[in-house]
Amino acid sequence: MSETKAVPTVMIENDRVRVTEWRFAPGAATGRHVHEYDYVVVPITAGTLRLVEPDGTRDAQLATGQPYNRPRGVDHDVINANDHEFVFIEIELLENR
Predict the structure, then answer these.
(1) Residue 8 forms beta bridges with which residues?
(2) In-domain check, residue 2
(3) Which of 8, 15, 48, 78 is most buried, by the most CB atoms less than 10 A from its CB?
(4) 3: pLDDT confidence band, cut at 50, 70 and 90?
């Protein structure tokens, strides 16, 4: 488990969405968490994120500008497996709060 934490910066938050920029130094991690809302991730940089999930660990290759979405309930730790900073924008859909 990484001791370096990824740095979140909330850019927008209202009744419908929360937009957060996540910056990961090499080896930095979010820490284990469970998503409360459906969300979309838009990578700003390309590279590999290591996902530590209840069923094991896997690497995800992300491309700049190629979004993906996940439902609420995702349980994982996200770790930057690159030797460079990794950045993505996370958009959480809060309408069902």
Answers:
(1) 22
(2) no
(3) 78
(4) confident
CATH code, 33: 2.60.120.10
Residue 18 forms beta bridges with which residues? 13, 92
Question: Can you give the length of the chain in residues?
Answer: 97
Supply 39's token pair.
């969300």
What's the domain range around 23? 7-93
How many domains does the chain contain in total?
1
Q: Give domain status of residue 83, yes or no.
A: yes
pLDDT digits (tens, 9 = 90+) for 26-85: 999 999 999 999 999 999 999 999 999 999 999 999 999 999 999 999 999 999 999 999
The whole-angstrom separation of Cα 54 and Cα 75 is: 7
Look at residue 1 and tell me if it is in a domain: no
Q: How far apart are CA 68 and CA 26, in angstroms?
A: 22
